[in-house]
Amino acid sequence: MSQAFKHTPPATQPLTSKTNVADPALWESYSYFPIFEQMRQEDPVHYCAESTYGPYWSVTRYEDIMAVDTNHHVYSSDAHLGGIIIDDGIQNDPENDFKAVNFIAMDKPKHDEQRKSVNGITNPNNLQHFGEIIRKRTSNLLDSLPVGEEFDWVSTVSIELTTQMLATMFDFPFEDRHKLTRWSDVSTAEPGSGIVETQQQRIDELMEMAAYFSDLQQSRKDKPDNIDLLTMMTHSPAMANMPPEEFLGNLSLLIVGGNDTTRNSMTGGVFGFSLFPEQWDKMVADPTLIDNAVAEIIRWQTPLAHMRRTALEDAILGGKQIRKGDKVVMWYASGNRDTSIFDDPDKIIIDRKNARRHLSFGFGIHRCMGNRIGELQLRILWEEVLKRFSRIEVTGEPELTNSNFVKGYTSLPVKLHAL
Ligand code: HEM
C-alpha cells in the first residue's frame, strides 16, 4: 500500500453522476485520491445524484472550496439543515430525540456569540501557559518510551498526548483524563459501530459526561481567572446559561475538535517521514524548519477530509447551478492536493514555501478555533523528539480510520532509535 501513499495512481473508471467519492469502501482502502484528481481535472464541482448520503455536490478544487467556506451567507452550517458532515447521521435521524447542539453547526449571530466566549483560550498568554505544561508532559511521555522495541505510536503517543492536552485545556482532573478520550469517541459514535452498541448507551454515557462537567463547573464559579475552557464557558454571558443540549453539545465540540485532528497529525508526521526519509534528514539538519514542517504535515495529512454545508439559496459555483437546499461537500483532502496551488502535492516537502496556505483548518467564520494550540503541540512534540531520538522507524503498515470525515490512523507500529 505504501506506494499509493507516495504517489496518486491514475483513476480507473470514467466519472459519472453515480461516482460517489464518499463511499466508505474507498476510504477504507485509501483509493479516493485518484478520483479527486480526476474530478479536479474533469469535473471539479461534481454532482453525485445518488448515494447512501443522498445526492450531494463534491467541491474538489482549492479556489472553489475557499469560495464556499468564506460565504456563510449562502452556505449554511446549521445543524437543523444537516450540519457539517456529509452524513446527516444520528443528529438528524427522526428516531433520535436527543440532539446535542454546538457552535460549529450554527450560523450567525449565535455562532459568533458562543465562539467569542471560548476563543480567548488561544490568546498569547494562554498559549505561553499551555506551552510550558505541554513541554513537560511531552518530555515525560517521550522519556518513558522503549528504545529499540516495537510499539504502537497511535495509542502510546498520539492518543496519550492529545488526551493530556484535553485535560490541560479543561483543567480537568488529570487522573480521570481517559474519560475524555472515551467521551470524545462516544460523542461521534454511531450505535453498533463497536464504540457503543445502542443509542441509549450513547445517551447514558454523554449524560454521565454532562453530570461530571456540571460538578466540575461548581468549582469554577468563584475562579473566573482560571485559564481553561470550562471557566470561560461558566463566566461568559453567551454560554453561562445554555440549555442542557447546548452545554453537552459544546463540550463535545471542544473535546472532539482538538482530539482526533491533532492525534492524526502526530501519527501522520511519523508515517510521512517514513515515506519521505530525506525530509526527516532535512529537519534533523535544520530544526528551525519545524514550524513549517508542522504546517506541511497538516496539509499532507488533512486530518478532517471534508466539511459540509447546505445551500440557503440558489448559487453558481464553478459554473454549476447549485439549488437552495443542496448538500455541498468541501473536500479539503482534495483541495490540499490541488496542483494549481501546491507543486508535487503528494509529497511532504518540509520547506515548501506555501505550506501554510493549506485548507486543513478551513477558512471563514468557522476556521478552526484551536489551530494554534494544535500547532503548538505538534511543534513541541517534534522539538522534543529531535532531542532524544535519531529516527522513528515505521515497522509495518498503518491501520487507517474507517471514515470519510476523520482521516487518520488507528495504529502504526514503530521502533525508536537512540541518538
Ligand atoms: C491539526 C489540528 C486541527 C485541525 C486539522 C482542525 C481542523 C478544523 C476544521 C477543518 C474546522 C472547521 C473549519 C471550517 O468549517 O471552516 C475546525 C473547527 C474547529 N476546531 Fe479545529 N482542528 C484542529 C485542532 C483543534 C484544536 C486543538 C481545538 C481545540 C480547542 C480545535 C477546536 C475547534 C473548534 C471549537 C472548531 C469550531 C470553530 C467554529 O465553528 O467557529 N481544533 N477545526
Automatic annotation (TrEMBL):
Lineage top rank: taxon: Bacteria
Family matches, as PROSITE patterns: CYTOCHROME_P450
GO molecular function: heme binding; iron ion binding; monooxygenase activity; oxidoreductase activity, acting on paired donors, with incorporation or reduction of molecular oxygen
SUPFAM superfamilies, per database record: Cytochrome P450
Keywords: Heme, Iron, Metal-binding, Monooxygenase, Oxidoreductase
CDD domains: CYP142-like
Signal peptide interval: none
Necessary cofactors: heme
InterPro entries (alphabetical): Cyt_P450, Cyt_P450_B, Cyt_P450_CS, Cyt_P450_sf
Similarity comment: family membership: Belongs to the cytochrome P450 family.
Protein name, per record: Putative cytochrome P450 hydroxylase
